[in-house]
């Protein structure tokens, strides 16, 4: 029983970390785009 709970918790944590990584990537892409706009203007 406790093993199943541990595994479920690990899955939740890994899902959260992958979501955070996606957010970081989005932020990086937005930063790059804003830099490009500055260079163009």
Task: Throw out a few tags for this protein.
41 residues, mainly alpha
Q: How would you characterize this protein structure?
A:
The chain is mainly alpha-helical. It contains 1 helix and no strands. The protein is rod-shaped. It starts with a helix and ends with a helix.
Query: Structural class of the helix and strand makeup?
Result: mainly alpha
- The number of E-state strands comes to 0
Unreliable stretches, pLDDT < 50, 5 or more residues?
A: none
Helix run count = 1
Q: Assign an overall shape.
A: rod-shaped
What's the Cα radius of gyration? Answer: 18 Å
Mean pLDDT: 83
Architecture blueprint of SSEs:
Elements (H helix, E strand, L loop, with lengths): L1 H39 L1
Summarize the structure.
With 41 residues, the chain is an all-alpha fold. The protein contains 1 helix and no strands. It is rod-shaped, with a radius of gyration of 18 Å.
């Amino acid at each position: 029983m406790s093993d199943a709970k541990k595994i479920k918790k690990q899955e939740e944590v890994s899902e959260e970390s992958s979501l955070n990584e996606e957010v970081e990537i989005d932020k990086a892409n937005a930063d790059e785009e804003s830099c490009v706009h500055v260079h163009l203007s």
